[in-house]
Structures are given as structure tokens and as C-alpha cells.
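[#protein-structures] MJ: dropping Chlorophyll a-b binding protein, chloroplastic here for a structure pass
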Amino acid sequence: MLASRHAAIARPCATARRAPRASSARVVVARAGAERELWYPGAKAPKYLDGTMAGDYGFDPLRLGANPETLPYLQEAELMNARWAMAAVTGIAFTDAVGLPKWWEAGAADYGIDFNTLVGVQVVAMAVLEAARIRGFQRTGESGVLNSFPFDPAGLDAPDKRVKEIKNGRLAMLAFLHCVSSYAVTGLSPLEGLQAHMANPQAVNIFTSAVGGETVAFVAFCSMAPTFLLAQKTLGDGKEEEFNPIPW
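AK: finished. C-alpha cells for Chlorophyll a-b binding protein, chloroplastic:
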């Protein structure tokens, strides 16, 4: 299902001649100068990340959004994956809490429907919904369902809520990555892992797991990276350098 969603998003990126029309509802007023929040203190955001998008903290180390025509599609792709991740993590926690089959067992469960029929229905349904969503996004610059762009039946849409949504969505994507990696390392579900940790915190944690060494190295890197960045900025010649790892 996620693969079909990615394909539907990627196709317009490659074929669209112009970016979708900007929507005033999607724009968040940027804080000026030093008052703007960035992903780490003293960071300098790329010119194209001016703080007008919800959840923009100037973080794009690979400069994936440098192309103004593909940037709206990348923002939409992040938002869609964030929403799927929030739904997935909620579902994983719910099934784990009530004793239903674990998330990695769901694909092998018997739902009383032939597998080929289930896949066929899903592919057709997702194709129709995704085609309508992409057309609506290209026309309005908003996320929606069928002919409703933006999709906001409760009338809750507001700039601050868009920021909260993408923040929670980013956390959910990290949480889903944790669910997958935790099962791969320990073979436990999230709640089972939490119970094992609470029973013996000193002996059961990420540092004592099979990837403890890699975790220590990653934490050390994240701890020292800001120091190196600030040192480079302080000792540099003051000239602005554009880092372009991907030649758009």
C-alpha cells in the first residue's frame, strides 16, 4: 500500500511542468531573523527554506528541496507518510494492548478473503483514491480526499495545527522505525519490550542489546556534530557556501 502511495507521489514529480498552486492556508508566517526556530542553535537555513512551510526548521542536509518545482511534492509526500505512520503506530499499539495478532503476523492472518482478491481490491481502491488526491493537490496545493481539498470536515484547520500535525507525524515515523528495528533486534513487540525494560532497566535496554555498540557510536556522533559545525562556522572565512550533493 505504501509502495503504491510512493509511486503515485513520485510520478507527478517527474512529469509535472510546474509546481501546484500555493495555498494561503498551507503557509505559516515565518519568524524574522534570529527569532526563527531552527533545527539546532546557530544553524543557517538554505535560502529556499524560508520558514513559510509548516514544520520548516531549515533542516535539509542533502538539499533535496533545492528544486522549487519538486519541493511542494516532497512536502506533500512527507505529510502523507507522516499520516500513515501515525495510523500505523496507533494500530500497532492497539493490537498489542488488546491481545490481537502482532503487526508482523497480520499479513499471515486469515481474513476469510482470498489473498489475490484482497490485493486486487486494495490496488484498485488505492489507485482511484491516489489519482483523485494527486489531481486535487496539483490543482489546489492542498491534501484531501476525492473532491474535498483540503479535507477538514470538523473545521479545525489552522496554521498552528498544521505545525503540530507534521511534528507528531515526524515523531510517528521515528516510532514506526523503532517498532520495526526493535522487532528485528529483540523479536518483541513495543509493549513487550517496554515490559521487559521496566522489569530490569539496567540489563534490558538499547545499550545492552545486539546493537549497543552502534547505538553508542550514533549517540556520540550526534553529541559532537553541533560542536564541529559551530567550530567550522567560527573558524571559517565567513563566506556562504552552498552544499549541493545532488545536482538538480
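MJ: nice. The chain has three domains: 36-66, 69-200, 205-235.
AK: one more thing. The chain has six helices and no strands.
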